[in-house]
Amino acid sequence: MDMQNEETKQLAEQVGCKLRQIRKENNLSLNELAEITEVSKLTLGKIERGEANPTLTIMWKIAKGLSVPLTALLNLEEKVSVSRSGEGKILESANGDWTIEPVFGNLKYGVSELYRVCIKPQGENTEQHHEGTIEVATAMSGSVDIYVEGCKHHLEPFDSIRFQADCKHTYINSSDTPAVLFCLLAYPRT
What we know:
Layout: H1 2-25, H2 30-37, H3 41-48, H4 56-66, H5 70-74, E1 91-92, E2 98-104, E3 112-119, E4 124-127, E5 134-141, E6 144-148, E7 151-155, E8 160-164, E9 169-172, E10 179-186
Antiparallel strand pairs: 1-2, 2-3, 3-10, 4-9, 5-8, 5-10, 6-7, 6-9
């Protein structure tokens, strides 16, 4: 348990340092960052100092407000990487229904990110990404329903879907087994 606590502490410190770096690169004060992310100045300050372990929801808000991929905050850059399932940084939604594992970090805010996603049985998650973002999801095991702008799309293993992800979309696993997907987020070039 101590090793897990130490890894969590290290991740919180990495996120804090990276957030401060990105904020300063964009010449933003904490007040300005709070306005564009809809995350309180107090919370942002704690994250930057490595005193808080932000939830996935908070991380998405920050990434969206800064118009950077989520992995930019995780500082997951390496020259050569092998991504083994279950060994990466696992991020969990507030309700625990949805976990993501970045497969590879990006290079200097690359324009795409790849995630392993696990949706618990009877679990669901709703998201909305940066303007112009395209999402591609492939079911690897289990089945999942994806609602995009109110339209239901059902995926069985190895089925894929591509859609504009800057609108609200919901993943629902109505089964009694976990659903595992690969999700690619492609961001517009700025």
